Write the structure tokens for this entry.
Amino acid sequence: MVKLPRPFTALSILLVMTLATVGSPAPAQAFAALPISARSAVLLDAGSNSLLYAKNSRLQRAPASTTKILTAIVAAEMLPLEGIVTIPAFAESVQPSKIHLRAGERYYVRDLIRAILMNSANDAAEVLAVAAAGSKSAFGARMTAKAKAIGCRNSRFVNPSGLPDERQYSTAYDMALIMRQVENYPFIENTMRTRTGVMCSLQGRKINLRNHNRMLWRDSREVVGKTGWTRRAKHCFVGHIGSGSRKTYVSMLGSNGLWRDLRILVDYSYGKSYKAVRKPVKLKGRREDTREIQAALKRAGYYRGKVDGLMGPATTKAIRKFQKANGLRSDGIVGSNTLAKLRPFIA
């Protein structure tokens, strides 16, 4: 066995330790306890590539329509933006969301990419996939290969739209890495920050486009990204916050309150402090408590009735649904565990 010189050995050990820490998230206890409902979330600093915040960052979950960010990247690599695609018949039977493409119509690739990023058009996503790779499954394999090439170790993609499929999954951390790649595609980034637009077929039919990212209207700070939702995935968002030296990549999967959670992550990335978890709400009386619970369930998206303080069947049903969605015993009773899960939605 050859004995290495001592200086070389020390340098090698230092290099190995350095490489081992690159891209590795800090332990969960190092991050603030943000009051968000999302099952997993990440804030990744653009300058240092270090995690500013992480919650279940490697938890595999369905990414829903945030998948379309990777779809746009792979499509842009495989097809020229000025290329023309003829819409096949299958596009008319694709599940929503969609822009109702018609068989035989012809569109520029760039406009179909705009449609998937702004309107989250599943029909446009599937048409691009087949045009680029011959089939959705072949395109899914290219998506997975691209994801692995940029460091996504816990992701698999089988369709370009994000429609439910148990074989398709990613993590908050991997989706942040995918969003980081958007910097290499100015057309995609500019499309994601565009509020509204119009696309036209070569035959002249116009389709209005409107970005699903409400933060483009609601917040003066730059919050660019792609939304997603399915029953299984719940609300998702992947994008970036700010620009230049203070850009942060944000990835959030499995949220029960998309815009509230996203606003908390944006505020935190801009320096707002969350040093402690909010204190329990003091009980004022049964009817007042029930109003508080109903209002929280309404914000979380589980209750649509009146906030009247009456514990009726609709309120009990909403509690059960909320408990089931959050891995609690579905008994319709708001005990300490259920109240803890509801607390982020209590104003």
